Amino acid sequence: PLIEFSEGFKKIGSIQTAFFNGISQMVMLFDQNNQLTLFNHLASKFYETKLKHSLAENDKLENVLFFLQKTEINSLVQNVRKGIFHFTERIVEIEQATLFIQINWVPVELEGNVSHIMLLLSDITPLRKLEMDYEEQKNELKPIFDSSIQRFYLVDLNLNIIAFNKSARDVIYKEFNFALKKGDNALDLIPQQERKEYFLKQFELAKQGHSVFFKESYPLKNEIRWNETHLDPVVNERGEIKRVLIWTLDITDREQYLRDLKESQERYELIARGGNDGIFDWDLLKNTVYLSPRWKALLGYEDYELKNEFGTRDSLIHPEDKEKARITLNDYLEGKTPTYENEFRLMHKRGYYIWVIERGELLKDENGNIIRLAGSITDITRLKKTEDNLLQLNKTLLDERKMFMQGSVVITRIKADETKRFIYISENVKDVLGYSVEDFTSGAITYDDLIHPEDIDMHTNERNEAIQKNITQISFSPYRMRKKDGTYIWVKDFSTIITNDYDQTNDILGYFIDITEEKKFESAILESNKRYISLFEEASDAIILLDELRIVEANRNAELLFGYSKDELKQMDILMLSPDTQHNFEKSLDRFNRKMLNAMTGETKAFYWQFKNKENKIVDTEVGLSPIVVNNKRILYQAIIRNITERKKIERALKEN
Q1: Are 378 and 470 part of one and the same domain?
Q2: Alpha helix (H) ranges present in 90-159?
Q3: Residues 630 and 599 grouped into a single domain
Q4: For 74-88, what is each residue's pLDDT tens digit?
Q5: Residue 359 forms beta bridges with which residues?
Q6: For a disulfide at 641, which of 161, 249, 391, 542, Cβ 3.0-4.6 Å?
């Protein structure tokens, strides 16, 4: 509907003027000749202080909107004269200052015809700068920490998991209450059929040599989660793709923040169109208050539910905000502040609080005495929430960065050109490598100077390949770095490629971690495994490893005892090698379960057991069963089996004699 002027409004008086000047938007009214006939104090002040332009009656529309093209103004005016509303947003550069301005073009109808054009202007510069500040801070800080929260899965071409990192294991256990282990199929980690089908299509592309990236949402425990997934083919030395690296990142908070920001912007634009502010009028002489229906509606009330009386507003202010709100208002009434803007929380009808910004302007009599305060309130709850989220996000990132700086994680930023010159390195490098920051930033040492000669080619190839393929996130293979005392440490390096506006590689931002102790532990485990495998294979008795009843490994003597190959045995369980009942007529299943339970309680005594070999002949054995425990958790059973068939024959013969 078009805006209509009442006869009372045509004869604007002091009260209406106070309302007009107290609303939270800049208002300008133009007649049929596109000349300025009416404008409020907020518009006048904004033009003088921000746009360096003085408004005056009869100013032409094209002079008032000097920052718009004349052809654009003419087109907009023609449409508005036809009764069409318009909304525009422009960036204005004034004396090296950048302003963001929203303009609502509103046709005003008088006696059935569009007689005037009303412009409602809003300065949205703080909101736009808040968005730009967030983007800038996110781009500077977030790449440092991206690698620390990624989940990595290395799979074969059948999606069987070969390796995974701690983050992957922890997330799978948290989301599915499932202990991830090697050999599991990655497709089983995707419960929804539609997601499985889409993932398989992307995986086929990765198998063909394409690096794939996609973003998806999915339901999890009554909420929607967002995930960012990368599929990178792993090429071996023969140029074959036998593995695919899957790495994922939970981006739920980021997606939710972007949606909150979008909702906040939409809310702000809705307010800017007018009619959304709650109007108030305080008569200081009579000490009476008028609260508009919209003022009450912002708090969930119908017009009749809140009385228009002094004290209603104050009774709804949050206890923690009352004193600050009172001081801010008194400072304005006493002339200590030139404008009135007051932020506080008001109690909603449903029991929660909303944030509002209260603006207003004083009306004085001919003697300069204050007689009224008129203005409006605007709901800024979502904007406050967005600001709080941004502050919390920045605090979290800075806390993480501080944590990194105090530990053994060294943060670096080097040029991606041939010099590999250090732009930045964190101060804790002295604790890790023994060098000072100045040793690096002065150019005396380059990054490649410190890499072990046997590792430099591998590291350089991985780095160059990532740059050539535009891979932004890199997890380098472990390599050795030289300390100042000449010794070497093993490091794990996570880096991000930084590009300029032309997508050209500028810098490499990342961090490396000292993993020397992990490598020593890894070597010790490998040596221990070699010794165990040697003893396992050379043992004089048959040995099998069991996962509950299923056989997962067997030595050479087990093959000889049962007549099956090792691969055949690994497809069988203990009951397939046993008769249905044992010598004491007890079922084999019940007897073996009991023996496993005894083994877990510490019983080490060997027991008599009858097996049947590939020729279906009974083999008398003596079995020693013991659990294999790691970190107080039983993972397998080891069964040492001694063939006593001949001994049993002798015992039976002696018994018969």
Answers
A1: no
A2: 125-146
A3: yes
A4: 999 999 998 889 989
A5: 341, 376
A6: 542
